[in-house]
Structures are given as C-alpha cells and as structure tokens.
Amino acid sequence: MGTCMHSTRDHTIHSRGESNPSEAPASILVPREMPKSVSISKQLASIKALKKGSDLEKAIATIALVFRDASDPDGKLGKATAKNLLQTQFRNFTEREESKPKYRDILSELDEHTENKLDFEDFAILLLSLTIMSDLLQKIWGEKY
Question: 124: how many CB neighbours lie within 10 A of its CB?
C-alpha cells in the first residue's frame, strides 16, 4: 500500500472552487465561495451537472466535497485529518477491521511521516483500498434485495 500513499502522478484538485476553465465546464464546478459549514447534500444540490447525475456520479462528487471541505488551502489533506475522517465518516467500513494486517499497515502509514499530505488521488485510493478489504463490502454483496 506504500505506493498508493505517495502517488507520483500530477493530479490536482482545485480546492475552494478555484477552477481551471480548461479542465471542467463551469456547470460542474462547485460555487467559488461555498462555506465549509454548508452540508454536503446542499453542496451536491448546487452542482448543476449533478441534477440528473447517477448515483455513482453523486457518490464520487460526495467524496470530492468531503475531501475539499477537510483539506487545507493548498488542496491537501493532512494524514491526521485523513485518519480522523476514516474513523468518523467511514467507520461502517473500518469498524472491526483492526485485526487485519493490511488495515493496520494502512493506518500506520497515516501515523508516519505526518509532514507528508495526501492529494485527492491518494485519498480516493485509500478509500477504495479500505472498501475492498472491508467486511461490510462482503455483506453488501451478499444481500438479496
């Protein structure tokens, strides 16, 4: 998992609504001065392109908004903040995973080299890694609706 935490690709999330017009149409950008105190659901509702968006698009947009709201002005997320987000907002996927060596490795990386911060790509990979190995995912796949 070590390679996931320190990505070498140059992907940038434009935090706080600072947009690069060549990257995305204005209709999908979050309003420039969206205060952090606004709920994620209200922020999602304000994104015009998601009015008729799929559940998957809204899920990814939610991840991006949670990241943006927790990140510093440079669009980076401190490792302590990332760990806190995982333990508070992703706890259904992380509860009772402490006995798994891979889970312990991931969390220990968040405790090491705390001066290094995560960009959005690193955070998304972290979430996907934890999701894939979680018991909750197995339960979701086993449910019959």
Answer: 19
Phi-psi region of 75 (alpha: psi -120 to 50; beta: other; left: phi over 0): left
Closest among 118, 134, 83 to 5, alpha carbons compared: 118
Average pLDDT over residues 44-52: 82
Give the DSSP letter string of 44-84: HHT-GGGTT--HHHHHHHHHHHHHHHHS-TTS-EEHHHHHH
- Ramachandran region, residue 16 (left: φ > 0; alpha: ψ -120 to 50; beta: rest): left
User: For the whole model, what pTM was predicted?
Assistant: 0.68
Which range is most confident: 17-31, 47-61, 124-138? 124-138
